[in-house]
Amino acid sequence: MSIQSSPLAAGQAAPDFSLQDAKGETVSLSDFSGQKVIVYFYPKAATPGCTTEACDFRDNLNSLQAAGYSVLGISPDAPEELAAFANDESLNFPLLSDPGNEVATAYGSYGEKTIGGKTIVGTLRSTAVINEDGSIQQIEYSVDATGHVARLRDSLGI
């Protein structure tokens, strides 16, 4: 039996959420009402692919913000792990803890994946771009961490 959450599509309402950030403070998608937000899901802080992707967002944050986008990273890591990851990599955007994978599941970003020939269940690397009205502008699944932000910027015309 396959375990896979249902993917979302452009035009659908982005599921709201409230999660703890690296400081233990609650951050909700509704906090960004009227703003454009990039929400990206990653499997595990401080692993090679996740570090590559997070640093890519860090290095491109000014251009994304100049175009009106905020960035939120979501993983199942505990707030303490997120704080260490953010500190170690000088990350300049919020990282949110989704320990039960409820938000990842709501976004279609949780399910089976194969790593090194072994099938496991976990957070799937994916990115949702959310419009000011709370609808999904675009959503991408099975994201390759390397070059992801450049491809995202290109698709958004940034």
From TrEMBL:
Residues 8-158 form the Thioredoxin domain. Its EC number is 1.11.1.24. Coiled coil: none annotated. It comes from the Bacteria. Keywords: Antioxidant, Disulfide bond, Oxidoreductase, Peroxidase, Redox-active center. It catalyses: a hydroperoxide + [thioredoxin]-dithiol = an alcohol + [thioredoxin]-disulfide + H2O. PROSITE patterns: THIOREDOXIN_2 (PS51352). Monomer. Thiol-specific peroxidase that catalyzes the reduction of hydrogen peroxide and organic hydroperoxides to water and alcohols, respectively. Plays a role in cell protection against oxidative stress by detoxifying peroxides and as sensor of hydrogen peroxide-mediated signaling events. Belongs to the peroxiredoxin family. BCP/PrxQ subfamily. This is thioredoxin-dependent peroxiredoxin. It comes from Glutamicibacter mysorens.
